[in-house]
Amino acid sequence: MTAPRVVLGVGGGIAAYKAALLLRLFTEGGASVRVVPTEAALRFVGEPTWAALSGQPVATGVWDDVHEVPHVRLGREADLVVVAPATADLLGRAAHGLADDLLTNVLLTARCPVLLAPAMHTEMWQHPAVVANTALLRERGIHVLDPDSGRLTGADTGPGRLPEPERIHAAALALLDGAGDGPSSSSADHDDDRAAPARDLAGRHVVVSSGGTREPLDPVRFLGNASSGRQGAALAARALARGARVTYVRAHTEVPDPAGAHVVPVSTALQLRDAVLTAAAGQGAQTGADAVVMAAAVADFRPAAPSETKIKKSEADESAPVVELVRNPDVLAGLVEARREGRVASTTVLVGFAAETGDATGSVLEHGRLKAVRKGADLLVVNEVGGGRAFGTADNTVVIIGADGTERAVGPAPKESIADAVWDAVVMRVPAENPGDR
User: Fold this and answer.
1) Which of residues 190, 222, 242 is at a domain's end?
2) Positions at the binding site
3) Where is this region: Phosphopantothenoylcysteine decarboxylase (predicted)?
4) Catalytic: which of 105, 133, 225, 396?
5) I need a labelling partner for 265 at 20 to 30 A (CA). Which of 30, 213, 295, 349 fits?
6) What pTM was estimated for this model as a whole?
């Protein structure tokens, strides 16, 4: 098997030194890496460092080695292009198609997945121009990681910190795993024997909800659940790898957001319902969803009247306060109703998750079958919870129940494999025509 060919672009930010650690992760994993820094990046880390660590020549301008036409060849031949750090200036130039150095030329000619890892001061990351440039890049299919929050240059702290090399590397490997069906990966271009994973969600828009909702009791307490968001994150990551545009409605999770997803953060069940329905229906230029996968653990109940101040215990009164609960809306049932009423496209595939425990009235699967009928979704993924199962674990065991009566047991298996099984079932149910034409 031929080593994957990676172009590592390095922008002119103080975090450029971390790119050397990322380069080492790629080379130790067997990748062939060509480093393309900007001129400004070389003021932070010199050319000899990049050449020594990569074992490849280093150039910044389009006039170097002109006979090899590097400004076209590097992008065409790459299996993946990663830029870390991606500065505000680089994001702007990439978004507007400027090509005044070798790296921006590579970004224009690349026909493989492109992953950008921004790093800049908080004020820059949150500036409307950078926000707009990031959104434009994501709309075009570029995978842009959200930066971490933490210590920046000097005493500043906030969002804008370069994600750790390990996180960038993991996102890159996920994209390499899913790259294989684009123009740059044909056997004519690549003369290698790597299998091409499915890109059967290319051109599709999918919505994935993830994590656990929290219902406030007072300003410091809440009703929550044990969901880690791992299965939802795996579903989003595998959809991205299979070519989809992903809206990731994320409640509270313990795992990083998947690189390249459009993240919509929420907290409560009502917020999650509104965000999912909005993404599923589409607004303005945004197309509606071809599939919605409800992997979030949504609270069934919420306090009827959350206290605006902290509920205090009284030393004189040892009794506990009584909290009145009201039911939250059923988000999946609401989606089914919206589809029936035409607010969501009739072709949208709706997938629910059912975390079940067996009891005296029936087994996990029996409860799941009843819920599948009651919910009216196209697919219901049933898994047993409790006793160290499902929540917070790397593996899962599920049964995927179809509205047509089909059942498929999957697992025990990694949650990524569970995710692929779910998308396999979804792909069988989405219409063959391009959903963007609806």
Assistant:
1) 190
2) 300, 310, 329-332, 353, 371, 375
3) 1-205
4) 225
5) 349
6) 0.61
